[in-house]
Design goal:
about 120 residues, mainly alpha, Arc Repressor Mutant, subunit A, 3-stranded antiparallel sheet, 7 helices, about 55% helix, about 10% strand, globular
Length: about 120
């Protein structure tokens, strides 16, 4: 078994004995899975994420992105341009969540209500 992530990720994980509880402590916060899901296809700018995750306020989205960066799941790149361009993308630790997020998406797809005939 390999451990993943930055020291902060390991610190959060060490607080919880149950593996499900450990996972939820990291990805269970509101908007986190949607952010990770939307970064699975590659880097995105803040404005793109804001449009894709319409229910999240800019303040909450910023806070969650900072938290994910601190945990080592997301990296932030600032380009020296005017106006400044910032991109977010998954780290290897963030990308390791892809099969889990894909499974959740598949499960959610199966929950679609049947179309009336």
């Amino acid at each position: 078994m390999t451990t993943i992530g930055a020291p902060e990720l390991r610190r959060v994980a060490a607080k919880h004995v149950c593996p499900v509880e450990r996972t939820l402590a990291i990805v269970g916060a509101k908007w986190t899975l949607l952010i990770l899901h939307n970064l699975m296809d590659g880097p995105r700018r803040f404005g793109e994420l804001e449009r894709l995750i319409a229910g999240a306020s800019p303040k909450m989205l910023t806070a969650r992105l900072r938290e994910l960066e601190q945990l080592g799941l997301v990296s932030r790149t600032v380009f020296a341009e005017v106006p400044p361009r910032v991109e977010y993308e998954l780290t290897d630790a963030g990308t390791s969540l892809k099969p889990i997020i894909d499974s959740l998406a598949d499960w959610g797809e199966r929950l679609k209500p049947a179309r009336p005939r």
